[in-house]
């Protein structure tokens, strides 16, 4: 029964995470509720995210929605930011991490109401001071704390006028990059409980493919409202966890 629950948790969390980010705030609490040790739950999340993220990126790449020329350069920025964030995290208290997370998400939420509401999405992703700094900064946030990383990246790509479907592929590649090192670390440490992780992974891959198909058909007018709802829910959950 636990395996079936984890499968559907993976489907729901990754479908939402693919479309708007924040999937980890569904899957991680669910695993903890089912009694998984914290390190095993995080390890399962990283391993399943690594596999499902690559599957959704590869699907969009195979359909020519995204190219390696456009996307490959973001890998070192995400990895470098993640490593930097991990190093900084060791010097910050959990309370300060929650404050940083809430401030960044509120900032993204407010700025989403500024500027164009219907970006044409005609521009390719290119290395620039804004894109490079933004990706590295979000990578630092992912290494520091993580919840809402995909949501923040979607806001960044919207600001850069990147088409939503391509943005989804780019976010999933960045998520794969940031999760790869962490997943390997958890595997080598022996924290991963493989039967439970494989059940979550199967659901996550299913959710990733479902999310990609929904993203391809989603009316662009609905993207920002969905992002705003997900962002608001993440902020509320983070504040509730910190207060309670």
TrEMBL record:
Coiled coil: none
Organism (species): Planococcus shixiaomingii
Family: Belongs to the 4-toluene sulfonate uptake permease (TSUP) (TC 2.A.102) family.
InterPro entries associated with the record: TM_pro_TauE-like (IPR002781), TSUP (IPR052017)
Main location: membrane
Top-level taxon of origin: Bacteria
Localization annotation: Cell membrane
Bilayer disposition of the protein: Multi-pass membrane protein
UniProt keyword list: Cell membrane, Membrane, Transmembrane, Transmembrane helix, Transport
Record-given protein name: Probable membrane transporter protein
TM segment ranges: 7-32, 73-91, 97-115, 127-146, 152-171, 183-202
């Amino acid at each position: 029964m636990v395996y079936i629950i984890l499968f559907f948790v993976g489907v729901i969390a990754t479908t939402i995470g693919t479309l708007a980010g924040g999937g980890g705030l569904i899957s991680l609490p669910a695993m903890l509720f089912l009694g998984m040790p914290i390190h095993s739950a995080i390890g399962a999340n990283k391993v399943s995210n690594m596999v499902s993220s690559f599957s959704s990126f590869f699907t969009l790449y195979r359909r020519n929605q995204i190219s390696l020329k456009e996307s490959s350069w973001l890998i070192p920025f995400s990895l470098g930011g993640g490593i930097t964030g991990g190093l900084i995290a060791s010097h910050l208290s959990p309370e300060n991490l929650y404050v940083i997370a809430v401030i960044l998400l509120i900032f993204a939420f407010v700025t989403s109401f500024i500027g164009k509401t219907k970006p044409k999405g005609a521009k390719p992703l290119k290395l620039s001071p804004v894109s490079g700094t933004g990706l590295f900064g979000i990578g630092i946030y992912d290494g520091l704390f993580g919840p809402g990383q995909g949501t923040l990246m979607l806001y960044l790509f919207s600001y850069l006028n990147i088409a939503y479907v391509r943005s989804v592929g780019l976010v999933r590649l960045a998520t794969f990059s940031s999760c790869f090192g962490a997943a390997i670390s958890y595997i080598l440490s022996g924290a991963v409980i493989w039967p439970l992780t494989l059940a979550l992974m199967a659901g996550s891959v299913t959710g990733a493919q479902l999310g990609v198909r929904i993203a391809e058909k989603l009316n662009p007018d609905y993207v920002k409202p969905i992002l705003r709802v997900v962002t608001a829910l993440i902020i509320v959950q983070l504040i509730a966890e910190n207060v309670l």
